[in-house]
Amino acid sequence: MIKLKDLLFEQEEKKIHPKVSHWKNEMAQKYASILLEKYGDDGEKYDTIFGDSMIMWKDVELIDEEKYKYKVRKIDKLYVLDEHIEHSFPADHIDYVYSTLKIPQIQAKDGKSTIDPDLVGKFAGVTGSIIVDGLKGEVTARCGDTVANDVTLNFVLDAINGKVEPTKEEYGKRILSLKKEVKENLKKWFKQKWVNIGKKRKDGSHPPCGTSGKKRGYAKCVPASKARGMSKKEKESATRRKRAAQNKAGRGGTSNLKGGGKKPIRVSTKPKK
Fold first, then answer.
1. Which of 93, 109, 180, 203 is 20 to 30 Å from the Cα of 83, by its Cα?
2. What is the pLDDT of residues 142-165, one digit of tens each?
3. pTM for the whole structure
4. How many Cβ atoms from other residues are within 10 Å of residue 211's Cβ?
């Protein structure tokens, strides 16, 4: 799944987390490194299982992405496998990350599955990335990131609750709408022409929004139209507060793994009264 942040700037090479440095599949390795920073690599916050080719977090509360809010916020298992599964529906991509959810409506009774076998068959006909375990009463979505898995789990829940027919057309529409949303956000971003008010060129203009270097924290970015209406003092104040907030969070640099892959810290252009 293409992410907006990957389209806007040339990204620094992702550092590979030591716990997956031996993995063979690069895409799974990089994504696992991001999730290790996001959900922890020490088992303190979540029950975490480390295998030779797998990392799993249990009972996870998903952290929203910058441009996406999760609809299924709590899942029972989140895991990445050191694998590279080619998948062409609804668009070419690679699968390696799994999200598992227990669903009350399909819990087994007396050792027997309660989910309609016809519905399971329909899910299988839609995509190979919906895995139903009737005895455990859980469904697993598999894709290339947790956002796509969230869309898949919502599709499954809506089908189980009779809100939609489990068809390839409905599922494809939901997944592809994510790409449309990214494109629309990208167009809006470029139209606004965001600039870094923490830096100035020789001609006095501000450079396009990017990063502000390893030692000075993240850039303070605003739309160019807003920057034109800010005074010098307002820009300096906003930049100082942004960098102070980043430093306080231990994320003053941009290239270290500690801050990479995390949601940016937002600071208003106006100080609190």
1. 180
2. 999 999 999 999 999 999 999 999
3. 0.66
4. 16
